[in-house]
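Title: Prediction job returns without error message
Component: structure pipeline
Severity: low
Priority: P3
Assignee: unassigned

Description:
Job completed but the reporter wants confirmation the result is attached to the right record. Sequence as submitted:
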Amino acid sequence: MQKLTNRVLGLKQLCWLLMVMAVVVNAASAQTLQQYRLAADDQISVSVFNEPDLSLESTRVAANGTISMPLIGQILVKGLTIDEVELKITKLYLGDYLKKPDISVAVVEYRQFYVNGEVDKPGGFSFREGMTVQRAVSLAGGFTERAARNKIKLIREDSPERETRVDLNTPIRPGDVITVEESFF
């Protein structure tokens, strides 16, 4: 009976530890996306409280890194976080147009990531939170027969000169390029 009690306690402790780890991983992922920097092809919404004519339900960041807002025109948002964009738009509307602008910005759709090499359907795919290399390869139709599942390279958009070997559980970010190499055996 004592062994069974110890096993049950051990399982409860293990379950509790796994739940804590899941919370920590999710918090780290959320924090990474909170510091996410906008770039061309990201799609965002801009809500100006009580001003529907000034709000944008959805707008894509242009190739030059700008969005166009009513009354204030083109705004450079490339390289800024959501919080920084909110602050910038608030400052631009403050005074001349609104007394107390309340701006809320959200990412509607992240820019694509890319999968190439030995996958069935190489190409660009929409990023979703929690995306891993394995999920990305699945979106690309899975591995081909010649794929080297242990030879996968990743190039981050923010450091294109650096190529890194990764495994299937590696998280990916918008703009990443994943290459599955060919196996020779």
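Comment from assignee: result matches the submitted record. Helices lie at 2-34, 82-93, 133-139.
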